[in-house]
Each structure stands twice: as structure tokens, then as C-alpha cells.
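Check this.
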Amino acid sequence: MQEKKELREKYLKERSQISQNKISSWSKKINNRFLELNHLKNVKKIMAYASMRKEIETFDLMEELLDQGFLLYLPYTKKDVIDLGTAKINDLDSDLKEGVYGVQEPVPKIRDEEVPEDLDLIIVPGACFTHCGYRIGYGGGYYDSFLSKHANKALKVGFCYDRFLVDSIPVEDHDVSVDIIITEKETIKTN
């Protein structure tokens, strides 16, 4: 879809020009808002993502989640199909290495044969989000495929800088919306 491609390029270019100081400051606020979610009281298994290229930074948050005793899962890209696999992470230093697209991914020896069917919460990255919870990702379709197959009853939480909350984007049948969006300024429950 051409319009999505153009919007993706626009927002990613704009994001690439944000200063690292702002990225770090905003990320800290988003991570703190996440840790304040009431939903975390009923959550054990959390799937996060390894941040890259000026995404909302997640490494400090993941360390905190591990310290608090949550079971942390990270995705890896399955090259043969458009989907993500998962792995339970115990140590961010030893359990990750650079994988597809330059993303830190779980090392092969710890990857799950099957995605856990009982993930409680999934943190979802994106280039931009609408207030209704739809997003433009990076164009591979990996997250939408994963969410449609494996999100089941999991709470889906989108991380987004406030300036990339947009009024509307083209939505396709396979797009999956998130339940909550967290920006550095607010926490939004979507419809």
C-alpha cells in the first residue's frame, strides 16, 4: 500500500532526526508510565522488543522487568515465514546477539520451539500509532502476523513518541490494533 509506505518513510525520517538526549528522556518517561500500569499486577509473562534506531529504548525497562521477577520474552525474526518466534530471556548480555535487520535477537540455543500461548502482555513498537491503536510498523508484516496468531488474550501495549500519534492511517484487514498506547505525555486506552 503506497500511502502506508510514504507515511512510514516520513515518520521514520522524522524520528531519525530527534536528538539522542530527547530519545533517552522520552524513553525513560514511557518506561516509567509502563511500570505504573495497574495491569502489571496480574501479569507474569511479558514480551518486549530490543530497541534500535531511535525506537523507544527498552533495555533499562527489560532489566527492571527481570529484576522484578517477570518472565521476559523477546522476539526473533523467522526468515522462512513472515512471523516472529520467541525466547525467554534470563540475561540481556548473554542471551542476545545481532540478528536480522541489525536487531538484537535471542541466541539460537534459547529460542522456543513454540510461542507460549499464555503471554500476558506484548509491547509493540511502531513508526506511528492512531488513537484507535492501529500502527504503521516497518513494512515487513511480522508483528501483525505474530499478533493475529499469538496475542490471544494478551494485553497489547504500543510504545510511541507523542509526536507520532496521528489522526488516521490506512488500515488493512490483517492489521491488529493495540489495547493501550504509552507516550512520554500520556497513557491512552484505545477502543
Notes: The chain has one domain: 2-128+135-189. The domain at 2-128+135-189 is CATH 3.40.50.10420 (Rossmann fold).
